[in-house]
Task: structure prediction
Amino acid sequence: MWADNPTFRMVLGICSALAVTNKLTNTLAMCIAVIFVTTASSVTVSLLRRAIPRRVRMAVYTLIIATYVVFVDQYLKAFYPAISEAMGPYVGLIITNCIIMGRAETYASSNPPGRAFLDALGVGLGYAMSLIIVAFVRELLGFGTLFDHRVLGSWWEPWVIMVMAPGAFIVLGLYIWLLRGFQMRK
Amino acid sequence: MSPYVIFFAAIFTNNIALTYFLGMCPFIAVSRDLKTATGMGIAVIFVMSLTALFAWPVYHWLLVPYHVQYLQLVSFIIIIAALVQVVEMIIERFSPTLYINMGVFLPLITVNCAILGLALFMILRNYSFIQSMAYAVGSGIGWLVVIVAMAGIRTKLVFAKVPKALEGPGITMIIAGLMALGFMGFAGIVNLQ
Result:
């Protein structure tokens, strides 16, 4: 979860990491969706690993992932229309999240389902953790709220830039710096 | 909205990389030198335009009449994967040198979220066919401009003293943030929503 953290160490799957982290609520929904899709598709790939021909494996993986994403997308639309609206097309973009494809390709395709499940779960949780810390800072500084509840008083002048695109890049950049700094010292 | 407005907005004010964070993985990974960045950018423009060309009719003439809009994700990803495959084969057949130069990037484009994102945005915003094409070409050019600029900055950055832990992805993210700030200066010229 820590050593192979997909977002900070390998800088993968950051499109969604940047886009949804302006509010913790969206972030949480995204994390759950990603964890679900990663584990489900890893287990499926692992179960089918002997049946998938090598040549077309990428296409097959993409289809498996897409199936689960469609499921999540429809589920959100049906039960949480507000969150679905706020996340816009980024739910669909989970398909192109390189983390999931990476797990399917490097681990699930050559390991039994149980271990593939654990591996995917670990990576998914690592992803979730990093997204949540980015979102925490952005929502706190940008709106003065956490999970839409006001935490900073009315004296707080919101840093609008934090909830806009540049804030996302800069916060993530600083986090990567911090984390690699710690790792180098060890 | 006029296709020209969409075209310019896609390049400057609503840049697909800097305001929607799409296509960031190659943006970080491939922006080390100018030549590869340009190659990747051109390939993206090409695939984006083709995607819009095929995805729009498939959605409006096939999925909508049969009320199976929920298949859009699956059908778009198939279209993109197929297109990349075909483009790869055509280039390999007619220009082996270009193929060798671009070979590495072409398959990568399938998982470039900018392409799928573009197709999803064009449906979400209810663009007509002409508008979609303007949006696709504009977004492709916008992505090329940004990745080439980033590659240019990074080649100069080799001579700068960046803290060890900030090197690589860290500093790239911060530069991207500053570029996004810079691009915000274009806001107000044209705008999309």
In short: The interface with chain B takes residues 11-16, 18-19, 58-59, 62-63, 66-67, 69-70, 73-74, 88-89, 92-93, 95-98, 101, 161, 164-170, 172-174, 176-178, 180-181, 183-184 of chain A (CB under 8 Å). Strands of chain A lie at 145-146, 149-150. The longest strand of chain A covers residues 145-146.
